Input
Amino acid sequence: MRWTAVIAGVVLLLVANSPAEAQKEPAPKETKMAGATQQKKSGGAKSKAPAQKPQQQQLAMPGAETIVLLLRNTLITLNDALQTGNYTVLRDRGAPGFGNANSAAKLSQIFANLQSRGIDLSVVSVLTPQLTEAPTLDQEARMLRLKGYFPSQPVQINFEILYQVVGGRWRLFGIAVTPRAAAPPSDSAPG
Output
């Protein structure tokens, strides 16, 4: 699974591939990554048989309130990193794969464009996110994918975020944030 988003001419690529697949298809030089590489377990032919797989608890889709809290917490943590230049907390709050794939310095490079533009994401604390696609769950990878935007003015905050269940909690696995000029509010009052 690959996601791309353009942030002011810079492509941000989130990767959720096995290490072998990532080596087969190197990213272009201008591509930046802010995600983790998912490792698939392989234990020979026995692990491929359905009867041999360990029983995993079925994931339930989080409720709307939980989704809003996840999105707000993640983007406020990113905003704190943008404002201070310290990406350690963002890295540490992520899933282990996210932290292993991204040092604080690497995250600083990935989000340098947002930081240099002075993007302020604090508005997400009071706005309700609008999902442009239904949330999706990947039971095997234990992932939740959310895509949408916060309808702020004059800049709309678009996002695509991947969370992974770790220790019973949803933790950041991949993130793409794209600020775009928002459409002006329409006057729907009759004239």
Q: What stands out?
A: The longest strand covers residues 169-181. Helices lie at 19-24, 45-48, 64-84, 88-93, 96-101, 104-110, 112-116. The chain has a mean pLDDT of 78.
